Amino acid sequence: LSDIEQTCPEGWSRLGQKCFKEYHVEKSWPQALRMCARYGAHLARIETPRENKFVASLLSRPGRSSQHETWIGLASQQQADDVAFVWSDGVPASRYVGFWKESQPNYKDGSCALVSSSCEGRHPIAS
């Protein structure tokens, strides 16, 4: 165990052991995934209600230059006879535990996961 405090690069916001940064360049989900990887990051994996609230606060802070939807690291994946949502690191997301909007996840219509209600504007958030 260590008491060493993790610091985040300039322009990133810290919560616990994670650093988050929103990028304001519109990308497809695969493009956003690659862009984050170039910076040694990945699309955000939201694991707790606290992280969910924190990411929402980043996206709604005053002075934010963009009001577009934002990609997180979650996408649908065909698995045998079923479709599931999986984090970009391969860990399955629970359809029973999470922060889903009412009537979500929808395994039949669409394959995107955003911090929003539609798949129109697409800006990545890395962690």
Automatic annotation (TrEMBL):
This is C-type lectin domain-containing protein. It comes from the Eukaryota. It comes from Heligmosomoides polygyrus. SUPFAM superfamilies: C-type lectin-like. InterPro entries: C-type_lectin-like, C-type_lectin-like/link_sf, C-type_lectin/snaclec_domain, CTDL_fold. Residues 15-122 form the C-type lectin domain. Signal peptide: none annotated. SMART domains: CLECT.
